[in-house]
Amino acid sequence: MARKMGGYETDAGGVFEALANPAQRELLFALADANPSGDETLDPADLLASDGEVDVPERTQIGLYHVHLPKLDELGFIDWDRETGQICTGDGWNDVAPVLDVIQENEDRFPEGVL
Asked: With contact defined as beta carbons under 8 Å apart, do 27 and 36 qualify?
């Protein structure tokens, strides 16, 4: 059943759809760890770089900007400024954040390679 949050209608399917894709899941976890508010924006490639110095491969960047960011923006989990490339949490963030928290808190209970 869908519920309306911050102008976006999100259901469990949208949350699990986003989490099913490894690139989208990694981006959401990185965003949760960085914890930016709606007035603080971040570069998604910087979020995905493990130490801030690792370059995200061009192929990954293409998928990021043409598939994953538009999808997460459409779901309302992020706000993505296409001109600057910057992201922050979206109006639907509160629908996915609790699921991310539960997964992170129970990470050791998942079989290796699932996350």
From this structure: no
Q: 70-111: per-residue pLDDT in tens?
A: 999 999 999 999 999 899 999 999 999 999 999 999 999 988
**Model confidence, pTM:** 0.79
Q: How many other C-beta atoms can be found within 10 angstroms of the C-beta atom of residue 14?
A: 20
SS3 (DSSP) at 88: strand
DSSP reduced 3-state for 67: helix
Query: Distance of CA 55 to CAs 5, 60, 61, Å?
Result: 35, 10, 10
> Which residues, including other chains, have CB under 8 Å from residue 41's CB and lie 6 or more apart?
81, 84, 86, 87, 88
CB atoms within 10 A of CB 32: 17
| Alpha-helix residue ranges (DSSP H) falling in the chain | 12-20, 22-34, 44-48, 58-63, 69-75, 93-105
